[in-house]
Amino acid sequence: MRRGVELSEHENPGQATVLVLRGRVELIGSAASWTGRQGDLILVPPERHRLVTRTR
Description:
It comes from Micromonospora sicca. The protein has about 55 residues and is mainly β. The protein has no helices and 6 strands.
């Protein structure tokens, strides 16, 4: 995903993770948000969420 691109709010269909290959992303849930940087593995919460790229 390029900088500034957003994966709009959606349901988590089951167990899922996000691996940040490069740059920085923010995963935003209803009660909390998580920032991931290069090499981070983020566990996707079992709730509606969205993903935003912050840097490339």
